[in-house]
Amino acid sequence: MILQALHGYYQRMSADPDAGMPPYGTSMENISFALVLDAKGTLRGIEDLREQEGKKLRPRKMAVPAAVTRTSGVKANFCWDKAAYVLGNDANGATKNAERFAAFRELLTAVCADVDDEGFRAVTRFLDTWDPEQAAQVVAALHDWDEIAPANLVFRLEGTRGLIHDRPAIQKAWSAFCANSDNSPKGRCLITGERDVAQALVHTPIKGVAGGQTSGGYIVSFNAPAFVSYHKDKADVGEVAAFAYTTALNTLLARGSRQRVTIADATVVFWAERSSPAEDIFAGMFDPPSTTAKPESSNGTPPEDSEEGSQPDTARDDPHAAARMHDLLVAIRSGKRATDIMPDMDESVRFHVLGLSPNAARLSVRFWEVDTVGHMLDKVGRHFRELEIIRQYDNEPEFPPLWLLLRQTAALNKTENISPVLAGGLFRAMLTGGPYPQSLLPAVLGRIRAEHTVTYYRAALMKAYLIRNRKLEVPVSLDPARTDRPYLLGRLFAVLEKAQEDAVPGANATIKDRYLASASANPGQVFHMLLKNASNHTAKLRKDPERKGSAIHYEIMMQEIIDNISDFPVTMSSDEQGLFMIGYYHQRKALFTKKNKEN
Fold this sequence. Notes:
Blueprint lengths: L1 H13 L11 E6 L1 E5 L5 E6 L2 E3 L2 E3 L1 E6 L15 E2 H4 L11 H14 L6 H12 L5 H6 L4 H4 L3 E6 L10 H13 L5 E2 L9 E2 L40 H15 L6 E4 L2 E7 L5 H4 L1 H4 L32 H15 L16 E10 L2 E11 H15 L14 H6 L12 H13 L7 H12 L4 H15 L14 H19 L7 H11 L1 H20 L5 H15 L11 H25 L1
Parallel strand pairs: 2-8
Antiparallel strand pairs: 1-6, 2-3, 4-5, 7-8, 9-10, 11-12, 12-13, 13-14
């Protein structure tokens, strides 16, 4: 199912000449430099093909003759490769690369033996006269050798446009070589259903999964007898179909892709069955652009590529796009249709979401969801509706991104400490409307006990969990009429804490730092002592004429809350503790909001 969907995406994108999807027999590779040759094969210069990205120069993604899969041994690419193959030298020296240089020259000759092309002749003459031993000295006169040695190189003919591997005669020779060298067994392709087609012996590695090997990993691979079934040692996928699905997935995972997002250890890609504006805006569902503050990355700094919240979304740089995304999220959160904001959105288009995580040389499929655009947007809207809670600070995001929510469950608030199981479960719940992970509430309560802090994000997570998993009604802001005992106890704790803060300003620790966890779990053992201390705090406030009004105000609030509490239970369940924390959060927000208005 996954491979068929990726194959369909490749077919759709390859039909669009502006999509830049590489044709069969090519692959998108990172190319850094072009060796500029004259007609005699003399190296005349080195052209830097890298692109500026922020303060860094990064290799350019370019369609080149399909890359070979290197696991061991020497295998050369056609008309491009690393300096070890093209120049016969790199950081390891010429002696260790002699076999690689010979393999590169041999492949070029085998492919283009009958080609009459000026560019081919220039490359042949270059390889015949090039001395790998002198590579570092010759190149150093034209460019920094340390940058050339590890880079991928291509060729350009001096005085002509385009690269040599793109010349029609070279491309024709490469296509013929690929067709004639096909000695794969024939069989039925499990992706297309075609019979008697050449089977792919090795599938192209998938690159771009966060945390994975730089050489890539496989989602279709088995190479030991224990993994073999029905006397087969490879997947029944045709060469062309294997190229299509791997090319499509590598394109989705490429740097700069707007159809990729990173959530904890999972890299998520998404695409539509046919062209849809949803592909352009779906990343914003998981990391909505803020209209009030610049988002932070996982280490508290402005996000960069490969970090959560870093997916390249033009809404981050375009205030109009950010406002449009905000309007869309507001609409779907309130239950409206996406077409009210984006009339060109076809909600019946099927949408695919694939989550991958690294697993040694292979890739694990963390989750796979397929639904219509309309249904998925409904589920995302429900997710944000259940998360909605009054913000502690005005500059906090109205639609908190998943990566920021997940950090609230991790030790030291660090991304690497996020539970992969929790991250995958939360993402799946957002997309499918299913229950949130059962571990979500205990994880949030555990961080509150450790840090003695109920943040906006933690309150939002607890609210969403209690609504969806426990079918409770939880208000967005303070509800003075609510009589749930855990909610009232949380409110009471917040009033007691505020009375202490006013009576003992600048104290090193408050009752929150010492008793928040125990008051929520074992209120019967804590509150009698807290109420006794509160009497001392209000008495101290009464002695000050300027603060006497505050003392009376707190006493009235405490009495109104206690009047609705029948008793203080010995213990409370996790669900009740979550409601306690929400009541505490609501009351604290209300107390400070009222004070700000008075000031």
